[in-house]
Amino acid sequence: MRTLITNIGELTTNDPAVGEDACGTLHDAAVLIDHGRIEWVGPADEVPADAEGFEEVNAHGGAVLPGFVDSHSHIVFGGDRAAEFEARMAGQKYAAGGIRSTVAATRAATDEELRARLSGFIDEMAAQGTTTVEIKSGYGLDVETEARLLRLAAEVTEEVTYLGAHVVPAEFADRSDAYVDLVVGEMLEACAPHAKWIDVFCERGAFTVAQSRRVLEAGIARGLHPRVHASQLGPGEGVQLAVELGAASVDHGTYVTDDDIAALAASDTVLTLLPGVEFSTRQPYPDARRLIDAGVTVAIACDTNPGSSFTSSMPFCIAVAVREMGMTTAEAVWAATAGGAAALRREDIGVIAPGKRADLVLLGAATRVHLAYRPGVPLVRHVWKDGVLTH
Ligand code: NIG
Ligand code: FE
Questions:
Q1: Whose CA is nearest to atom 8 of ligand 1?
Q2: Domain Aminodeoxyfutalosine deaminase/Imidazolonepropionase-like composite spans what residues (predicted)?
Q3: What would the CATH number be for the domain defined by 68-344?
Q4: Residue 232 C-alpha to ligand 2 middle, in angstroms?
Q5: Edge-to-edge strand order for the sheet containing 225-230?
Q6: Considering every ligand atom, which ligand is closest to the CA of 135?
Q7: How far apart are CA 195 and CA 336, in angstroms?
Q8: Cα–Cα dist 267/298, whole Å
Q9: Does residue 99's CB lie within 6 angstroms of at least one atom of ligand 1?
Q10: Rounded to 10 degrees, what is the CA torsion of 15, 17, 22, 27?
Q11: What pLDDT score was predicted for residue 211?
Q12: How many helical (H) and strand (E) elements, i.e. helices and strands, does the chain have?
């Protein structure tokens, strides 16, 4: 099936070979899609003469951009923590200890319950323009439940991450090394066949650098690729560890230091910012301007989870990144598309160019700036995933 999207007012391609700026922007453009792939991109009045047999969609001057690539989520879980959020807004501090209450609710949930919940999140993300999502385990924290969460995640995405080292579960309190033995032993054996990535929460109150290194190295030896949660609640050595081990991404970076920035800038590791977390936990926003100016590759993700960030809206996260982190809208949109693809080491998504996957978003607004300019307004008009109109 072929589709021609025409009369595009502003097309963000992220293709450096195209267009007027770093986002590969074209005006008055058209895109031709053939069987799930981008076939042609160019000015609307230069559609190839031999292009025929397609369905035409008139964008009516709206903006088109690559589908959002959300490289960090925790959306297989039971229960929620609205009361914890309410208490936080009344002045209580966020502490990762709340994770344990979600673990209890998740262990108690059936596959059907978890699957229904998960598919609800996937639907709401898709309606807001997300066409690729990474999903982590981490609310099971026993062999059976972690493997169960990964199997469910693998039903809806190929970007599945084993996060057995999320926190130390209650039954291992004061025996964190014994829990790490389980994470790198029997749990890894049960989980690795369902996952592509291994992740660890390297933070005071979760896992030390030495424990994090053990977890990541065991995952790498088992064929998984590393990514890391670090510097969310305070500065630490997690960013340096991620860079040293060649992680695709290190995520949060709320308290990233000058040394971390220098190490990131000299590496292939992406720093994934999670604006929903600072928003919902009242932590200070990291300065994305400083990161980008230093040469760090920055992505934006939603980190959808019941504790620190219960938004699934990439447009919302873009708006917050622009308003609070010093990014231009062009940088934030790049970070939510091409940046997310880099954080997942994917070359087939996050860019609108011939041969790439036809994952696109059409806005009911003339420019991508409207994503930040009109926060909270549902601007996503249409979404194509693999060339198929899904919304
Ligand atoms: O990415 N930092 C650790 N994990 C999640 C929060 C999980 C929770 O609070 O339930 C995060 O923010
Ligand atoms: Fe997370």
A1: 307
A2: 29-50
A3: 3.20.20.140
A4: 9
A5: 135-136, 160-165, 197-202, 225-230, 249-252, 270-273, 298-300
A6: 2
A7: 23
A8: 12
A9: yes
A10: -80
A11: 98
A12: 15, 17
Q: Would the CB of 102 count as within 6 Å of ligand 1?
A: yes
ipTM over the 0.95 cut-off: yes
Question: CB of 64 within 8 A of CB of 363?
Answer: yes
Q: Are 350 and 338 in contact (CB under 8 A)?
A: yes
Same CATH topology for 2-67+351-389 and 68-344: the answer is no
Q: Where are the domains of the chain?
A: 2-67+351-389, 68-344
Tell which residue, 163, 130, 83, 158, has the closest CA to residue 312: 130
Q: How remote is the CA of residue 135 from the centroid of ligand 1, in Å?
A: 13
- With a 6 Å cutoff on the Cβ, whether 242 touches ligand 1 is no
Residue type, 61: G
* pLDDT score recorded for residue 95: 85
Report the residue among 102, 302, 305 best suited for mutation to probe ligand 1: largest number of ligand atoms under 8 A from its CB.
305
Q: List phi, psi (to 5°) of 225.
A: -110, 140
Sign (positive or negative) of CA dihedral 272, 276, 281, 285:
positive
CATH C-level class of 2-67+351-389 = mainly beta
Residue nearest to atom 9 of ligand 1 (CA): 307
Residue by residue, DSSP assigns 163-205 as: EEESS--GGGTT-HHHHHHHHHTHHHHHHGGG-SEEEEEESTT
Q: pLDDT by residue (tens digit) across 117-162?
A: 999 999 999 999 999 999 999 999 999 999 999 999 999 999 999 9
Q: How far is CA 32 from CA 58, 328, 389, in A?
A: 12, 29, 14
* Whole-angstrom distance, CA of residue 303 vs CA of residue 338: 17
Does an H or E element contain 319, and which?
helix 314-325
Query: Residue with the nearest Cα to atom 6 of ligand 1?
Result: 308
199 Cα: distance to centroid of ligand 2 (angstroms): 9
User: Is 361 in contact with 382 (CB distance < 8 Å)?
Assistant: yes
Contact 277, 245 (CB under 8 A): no
